[in-house]
């Protein structure tokens, strides 16, 4: 028996679930876990199902797509043993990368990492020591367009399903963001929408907040405005300088980004309007 | 359109979900929310579905029960507007009662409270001020059997679906526990299985723990061993005396019991072997 | 032996602590608990000491003030048995008031409540049932100045040490804020600086955040910009409507405001520049 | 100016703090941070002070020790720039070691690691890649005494101040525990006192708890009974198998052990009777 993960999005209407479960039963499948959400504000139905079946994926896909055709859904079917491929991008800071690689090595993150790309050489040795190919794509104002072109090619060649910006410090172009909409995850080092922009920990110190946080979100052309996937906070007090907040915040950034990557790779995150629906 | 909540338990096997969704579709229903879990250790499938339909509950129930008969399931169907009825029991401490009544008055807890029963008179005025009938059933070693008989009658007369022990300080008999298995919720003032038995906060102080907690569980004949519904903890330090831990702990007890009552009343808690499955 | 709480603020310089402890020893005092913080950014030393002594407060105060005179400090001495007096202000929402009164009745909040003031009559019966005097001061654009004058008089007559805005929905004038600087605590129903202004839960829903929060702060002429005393958050997900966020948020508001009132009443909050130092 | 950390323990009595601050003032010191706690149950006063002074440590120590002699205290003085030396012990599991090394490399943990000792060879390459000497001391029933003798020698030679058992799977002898009382930190993979002994995550699964945790404690001859330094928990649900709880629990173990090491190395943990006082 093979384990499958099915994702479905459609404008909500009666009968979709029953038709879908019918397709699963028709191919000898047994549902192990399922969750769904009908978003009133966007009208979108989001469904995630895990099931077992002895049939081939193509047989199942055909059965489901044909059966559901009148609902015009977007259907994604993945063998549970096929892992999502994440292309990770970094600059010089390595704390988020360190956590992703730690969980990757232990099999805690259900991903493959075909390569890690950076605009600097600093982290090459860390990456290569982990047995992952490292690509250096320097970026200047003059070369930005060419750099993004090269990056696009690498995404395609590597078969990456999504991109993780693990404290990658370059802003991506609107075109690039649009091309990979819903497929680029960024970690912002504040509890958005507080402290957008640069030096959020210094802003947090200036405001005297009692909790600092981090936010993982899909990247859109509007900086720091993309749909939020995951957030968390940690308690701080008056004794922490801005520099100390940076240190404390690293732990939250690591945790939040790894959790967002796990949710995305596990097919649990659905874009619905400007928000995410998380079927966890 | 009427909103319905459907609960289903059965030995897991292929086809149950599809048959169930078929029954819902057949009565013109549209699924709004659904969750299920197949427990490998107990073999039990637990399902909770919310759906809308214009049909009467009896029509729907018949459709579902007939359609699903070959799976020999336990099916419960409730109109969303019909609230579960909770008979609350107290002794002298009122902090859990206070929180339940606060949320009840505001409509945060989806329950009706037909009456509150106590083995003491102390809280009569608080209860009656909230507009809820108060019944005093004193309990001594000699009268315990008769007291439980009276309590059973009150449960029946009041149409209570379940019993909440909001710091009720009498141990119920094995017979009573068995009769209402899975329908009595107790709050224990420790993070079980730590500190079973009496004076758990004094035990916690003696051990020097850095977190104290509370546990809401179904009552069984084995004291403090029933299936756990909800737990939470709060951080403490060396400065708290045992008496201060009692004060701090009250907040956790209130929160944990109210959350357990909410989950149960919302039909989200399923007994599965010695554990609970929470479809939240 | 009487228990005393001593607060001291001064521009930091060597010798203050030793002089202060000398003054305590000179009056036969024994220190039970002490904490201090020297804020580099503001240059202010904040000190809180609890000690026991058999001497009268006037003797101790004189000893301390004379001994410390060359450091030009602000010294406050309070008998531990003298509770800070809190004048509470409400409008129509009662969830924060309910929590304050619950903890007040049980002795968890070290305050006296001489009266509760509201710009509406709605909560009169709740307040009077708790045995606390209720004053109605209606506020319109035309009567605002007179209303604040009446409020000032009530603060003076009641001997209130500080004012708690427990979801009081009127903006206080700059003059009033300045007059009671560091003595008015407000609860804002968002995790500031996110979602300033009106309808923060609707803003939160709009942005799709995964945590919502509340902030207790001292009131200044800059709305929602005063020094933060306490903050907390709670996890939410896509299923919560804005109206449901309002319900969930009430619990955080209650908790955060009560904690801020406790810290303030226990003399643990020090203004230092635009921030607070909490010696907890 | 040099920064110093002073720790003091003594039977509590009036005048200790004033005498101590007098000693600091006498050597030109300025107090930056201080905390103290008088434990009623054990009668012990615990004090931690950070101060600046231009004097040499021997001058300060003499001044303090002589001045305080009549109180018969235990006084420890450390230059802030002198880091506590931690000898880390591991077996085959590397998740706690990984977190300690990560924070060590970034300077987040105020320690030196003179060496890492293991009863297995498995982690040699990880340790040596971090630039830390690795010592293999195999342990069998027959060689246990000799192995502990070798370990004692290594502690002495390396100048280690304390020992960290980062999932070291051998039980230390009573003699060894007594010799290094208050200087060996262990991480237990449960929220003690729940689930003592072997396979705590399997015990937790068996009981159906809703939170799992970890406990860092000083090692004593009574297994799993030593004074607790730090604890934390994480929420789990019915979906996690015992094996999955092991994976989830690793994150809590890492966090709790690193925090305990930080508190100990920062001189903030005081043994007081069977408990710890944490002056954080």
UniProtKB/TrEMBL annotation, chains A, B, C, D:
Pfam families in the cross-refs: ACT, Formyl_trans_N
Ranges where the ACT domain occurs: 5-82
Signal sequence extent: none
Top-level EC class: hydrolase
Catalytic residue positions: 224
EC number per UniProt: 3.5.1.10
Taxonomy, superkingdom: Bacteria
Single GO MF descriptor: formyltetrahydrofolate deformylase activity
Keyword list, A-Z: Hydrolase, One-carbon metabolism, Purine biosynthesis
Pathway where this protein functions: Purine metabolism; IMP biosynthesis via de novo pathway; formate from 10-formyl-5,6,7,8-tetrahydrofolate: step 1/1
Catalytic reaction list: (6R)-10-formyltetrahydrofolate + H2O = (6S)-5,6,7,8-tetrahydrofolate + formate + H(+)
Hydrolase in keyword set: yes
Matching HAMAP family: PurU
Family: Belongs to the PurU family.
NCBIfam families assigned: PRK06027.1, PurU
Stated role: Catalyzes the hydrolysis of 10-formyltetrahydrofolate (formyl-FH4) to formate and tetrahydrofolate (FH4).
Protein name: Formyltetrahydrofolate deformylase
Organism: Arthrobacter hankyongi
Classification lineage: Bacteria, Bacillati, Actinomycetota, Actinomycetes, Micrococcales
